[in-house]
Amino acid sequence: MxxxxxxxxxxxxxxxxxxxxxxxxxxxKLEGFLDTAWLTRLxxxxxxFIEKSRPVSRNNExxxxxxxxxxxxxxLRRVVSPVSHDKIFWExxxxxxxxxxxxxxxxxxxxxxxxxxxxxxxxxxQRFEWHQDIQAWPHTNYSPVTVGxxxxxxxMSQGPLTVVKRSHVGPLYDLYDNRGNFVIRIAKEKLxxxxxALKDYMIGPAGTVFLLNCRTIHxxxxxxxxxxxxxxxxxxxxxxxxxxxxxPIPSIYDGTIVRGERARWAHHDPRSCxxxxxxxxxxxxxxAHQSK
Length: 292
Ligand SMILES: O=C(O)CCC(=O)C(=O)O
Fold this sequence. Notes:
Helix content: 10-25%
Order of helices and strands: HHEHEEHHEEEEEEEEEH
Number of strands: 12
Bound molecules: 2-oxoglutaric acid
CATH superfamily: q2cbj1_9rhob like domain
CATH class: Mainly Beta
Number of domains: 1
CATH architecture: Sandwich
Shape: globular
CATH topology: Jelly Rolls
Oligomer: single chain
Radius of gyration: 18 Å
Largest sheet: 8 strands, antiparallel
Strand content: 15-25%
Number of helices: 6
């Protein structure tokens, strides 16, 4: 769908100025958006994941472990595809107000892609270098949007996800390093233009929700605080956007139409996109390369 058609479709959740802000800035933050009932259910499910991770000693299809993880002191980087491991996460991704929110920025027909739950554990949870998402999962157009949900209060000391305003209208950067590794990191020397005034921080009370366009540059610092920063990230697109590389976080829900109808035509954006390595045999996230 063209932007004009998206803006002409009836809004379900956002005001017209909030919709315009998303398209202008490349993200939108909605402080305290989520109701307490959903927040409580998601947090309890997250606690169950942490309990389940105790006996796990190496990364598997469900958990990416933080350094120092052990039975007594579980520490997680990520639950991979929470929608695959607890039905509450799929209910949230498909039946809550979230797909309506997405429809306001991609049009009435919404396709689910994948989900992840990043913990950024207390006292050292690792940094994410500046990157854009779409090179890791290219689609035929740039409608893909990540919905972030803060499961706990987040302040500046917890390594909040940080975005670069209006970077979605700029170029897509090379996410390979000089040796040809796909490091999901934009080289520092390319980002000298990013001033403090261009950054915005996804801090706020638990239940704060943000929408992040797939071209927007973002990253996050180390969590130096004594509180973890669980952040649920669900990715969707317009139904007429089709991925053309393997989904790095596949699930049985990949491609499910969560609002509206299947597309009969693909919409192709003429701007080209870098492609990732072949992940059809598996993917463990960016940390392996970024921590080198
Ligand atoms: O959890 C974070 O702070 C950043 C996550 C992120 O950028 C990603 O998963 O692509």
